């Protein structure tokens, strides 16, 4: 019997991960984590899941077949370890440690820290990689900028300014570097090569993530305090120019956070921190279909194809 695809949902206030059948919404198992799990990343082969336990100061590694904890990675400078990105070409996991303003590089074969890079900025919270995996970008909530890093040389390139309290960050293959700024409710769009700002777009209230659809045409941005998700068309033409632009807001639960698409792009899933559920969004008409129940304060989310 083949398993259904699974949603992996981190419950920050239960210190658990809900493993949910992506089709039925049934919770298949609940996995104990360490204190305050925030973000999750699954390896490209689907065999390992990495979870940052932010207030617990640790990075946990789980086997996705058995859900056994296979490693717990710690470092004296981990201070609210948070955002994760996998650099597949180099077999690396990149982790942003918020309050120590460092980026850690972890070997995903051995689960050992191989390097760490100070950003010299304030509250380095989320990390994203260019499609060619040659540059990393780190959103610095406290210093209103992003740090660009040369991945091979582990060298800081620049710290271009964006908006107020940047958090959500992603490098879109066509649209460029997209940054969601919590405090001013704007999307900053930068050229990932030149680091020049190319445009801005209005979002909802307190936008915190930037998540592209598998085909790249759309981007979802959960707005924490307006309880909705901004739908961005990356090919919108405005005043004769093509630029990412908000074309709709999708109402979801209270305090939406972690967001993920199914690989076929037909559905998206948004973890609602304060209604303790996950909104299922139909990506044809961009409406909420239903909600899956979780434990307390669901946020980080990943999709595990089976």
Write the layout of secondary structure elements.
Elements: E1 6-11, E2 16-21, E3 27-32, E4 37-42, E5 48-53, E6 58-63, E7 69-73, E8 81-87, E9 92-97, E10 102-107, E11 112-118, E12 124-129, E13 135-140, E14 145-150, E15 155-158, E16 166-172, E17 176-181, E18 186-190, E19 197-202, E20 211-212, E21 218-223, E22 228-233, E23 237-238, E24 241-242, E25 245-251, E26 256-261, E27 267-272, E28 277-282, E29 287-293, E30 298-304
Antiparallel strand pairs: 1-2, 1-30, 2-3, 4-5, 5-6, 6-7, 8-9, 9-10, 10-11, 12-13, 13-14, 14-15, 16-17, 17-18, 18-19, 20-21, 21-22, 22-25, 23-24, 26-27, 27-28, 28-29
Number of β-strand runs: 30
| Biggest β-sheet: strands ordered side by side in the sheet | 3-2-1-30
Order of helices and strands: EEEEEEEEEEEEEEEEEEEEEEEEEEEEEE
**What does the largest sheet look like?**
4 strands, antiparallel
Number of domains: 1
What radius of gyration results from the CA coordinates?
Answer: 18 Å
What characteristic shape results from the CA principal axes?
globular
Helix content percent band: under 10%
CATH A-level architecture:
7 Propeller
* CATH fold name: Methylamine Dehydrogenase, Chain H
Strand content: over 45%
What is the CATH homology-level superfamily?
Answer: YVTN repeat-like/Quinoprotein amine dehydrogenase
Low-pLDDT residue intervals, each spanning 5 or more residues: none
Under the CATH scheme, which class? Mainly Beta
In DSSP terms, counting alpha (H) and pi (I) runs of 4 or more, how many helices?
Answer: 0
């Amino acid at each position: 019997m083949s398993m259904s695809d699974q949603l992996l949902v981190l419950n920050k206030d239960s210190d658990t991960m809900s493993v949910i059948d992506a089709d039925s919404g049934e919770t298949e198992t609940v996995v104990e984590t360490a204190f305050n799990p925030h973000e999750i990343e699954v390896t490209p082969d689907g065999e390992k899941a990495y979870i940052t336990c932010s207030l617990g100061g640790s990075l946990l590694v789980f086997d996705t077949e058995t859900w056994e904890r296979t490693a717990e990675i710690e470092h004296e400078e981990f201070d609210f370890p948070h955002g994760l990105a996998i650099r597949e070409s180099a077999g690396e996991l990149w982790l942003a440690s918020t309050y120590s303003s460092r980026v850690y590089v972890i070997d995903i074969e051995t689960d050992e820290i191989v390097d760490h890079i100070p950003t010299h900025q304030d509250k380095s919270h989320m990390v994203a990689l260019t499609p060619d995996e040659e540059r990393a970008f780190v959103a610095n909530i406290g210093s209103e900028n992003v740090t660009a890093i040369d991945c091979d040389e582990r060298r800081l390139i620049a710290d271009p300014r964006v908006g107020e309290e940047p958090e959500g960050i992603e490098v879109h293959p066509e649209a460029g570097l997209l940054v969601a700024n919590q405090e001013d409710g704007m999307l900053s769009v930068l050229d990932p090569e030149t680091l020049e700002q190319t445009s801005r777009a209005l979002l909802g209230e307190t936008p915190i993530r930037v998540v592209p659809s598998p085909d790249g045409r759309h981007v979802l941005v959960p707005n924490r305090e307006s309880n909705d998700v901004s739908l961005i068309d990356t090919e919108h033409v405005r005043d004769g120019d093509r630029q990412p632009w908000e074309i709709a807001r999708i109402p979801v639960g209270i305090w939406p956070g972690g967001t993920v698409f199914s690989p076929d792009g037909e559905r998206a899933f948004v973890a609602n921190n304060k209604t303790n559920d996950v909104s299922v969004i139909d990506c044809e008409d961009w409406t909420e279909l239903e909600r899956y129940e979780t434990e307390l304060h669901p946020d980080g989310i990943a999709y595990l194809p089976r």
